[in-house]
């Protein structure tokens, strides 16, 4: 690996090495973050229903506060605003949901940039190596010394190493970005469901006001 680093040249290999370290670090950090934030939504919904049946809205808030992740945070905000108008309740849930999604998407743009730039660095190293090779060939031919095979092989080796290194960094970065983005989409879908499910549960648990039966003219006359 050290030999390949020097064959490719520090000018191109050092940025690719730093990029690979960043991709691995972000991948591990985001995996842990997503693992802590993940929750089975159907299980969570059932637990919230049971808690609210036993202890009302307060019990639902206490349970949501004990569970990490964006879903529980959105439910906690919504339950805390259950006495407010429906539009305000949804706004509070939306604001919390947006903040939680932004936390989930942290560092993902960096991975996307690395996935796009790493192949370009590899291609630049390829072009640089080929330019060096052709300059060596041209210089040897013009001086009558012939083609310097060592110089030609060195330029081609640099071109191949930088290209392979750029792809080796870009492919995992692309896969990680797509996988994490898919996970974020799953959280967003559950957050969208949370608004309607919360309103439904609150409507079911809130006591309905009994409407007084209007008296008819006949009943008034009889009285």
Secondary-structure topology with pairs:
Blueprint (H helix, E strand, L loop, with lengths): L1 H7 L1 H28 L3 H26 L3 H11 L5 H19 L3 H36 L5 H57 L11 H6 L1
Helix pairs in contact: 1-7, 2-6, 2-7, 3-4, 3-7, 4-5, 4-7, 5-7, 6-7
Describe it.
- There is one protein chain.
- Helix content is 85%, strand content 0%.
- The chain has one domain (2-204).
- It has eight helices and no strands.
- It is mainly α and 223 residues long.
Low-confidence stretches: 208-215, 219-223
Order of helices and strands: HHHHHHHH
Q: Report the span from N to C terminus.
A: 102 Å
What is the makeup of the main sheet?
none
Number of strands: 0
Counting structural domains, the number is 1
Q: Beta-strand level of the residues, as a percent range?
A: under 5%
Count, helices: 8
Helix % is over 70%
The average pLDDT is: 81
Shape: rod-shaped
> Over the alpha carbons, how many angstroms does the gyration radius reach?
31 Å
Helix/strand-derived class? Answer: mainly alpha
Question: How would you describe this structure in keywords?
Answer:
single chain; 223 residues; mainly alpha; disordered C terminus
């Amino acid at each position: 690996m050290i030999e390949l680093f020097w064959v490719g040249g520090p000018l191109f290999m050092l940025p690719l090495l730093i990029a690979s370290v960043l991709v691995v670090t972000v991948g591990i950090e985001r995996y842990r973050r997503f693992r802590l934030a993940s929750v089975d939504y159907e299980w969570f919904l059932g637990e919230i229903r049971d808690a609210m049946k036993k202890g009302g809205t307060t019990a639902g808030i206490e349970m949501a506060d004990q569970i990490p992740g964006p879903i529980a945070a959105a439910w906690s905000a919504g339950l805390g605003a259950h006495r407010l108008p429906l539009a305000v309740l949804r706004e509070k849930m939306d604001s919390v949901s947006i903040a939680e999604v932004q936390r989930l998407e942290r560092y993902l743009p960096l991975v996307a940039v690395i996935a796009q730039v790493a192949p370009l660095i590899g291609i630049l190293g390829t072009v640089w190596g080929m330019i060096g090779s052709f300059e060596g060939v041209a210089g040897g031919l013009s001086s009558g010394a012939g083609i310097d095979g060592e110089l030609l092989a060195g330029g081609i080796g640099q071109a191949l190493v930088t290209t392979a290194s750029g792809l080796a960094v870009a492919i995992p970065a692309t896969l990680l970005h797509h996988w994490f983005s898919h996970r974020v989409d799953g959280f967003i879908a559950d957050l969208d469901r949370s608004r309607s499910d919360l309103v439904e549960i609150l409507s079911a648990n809130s006591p309905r006001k009994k409407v007084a039966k209007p008296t008819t003219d006949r009943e008034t006359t009889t009285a």
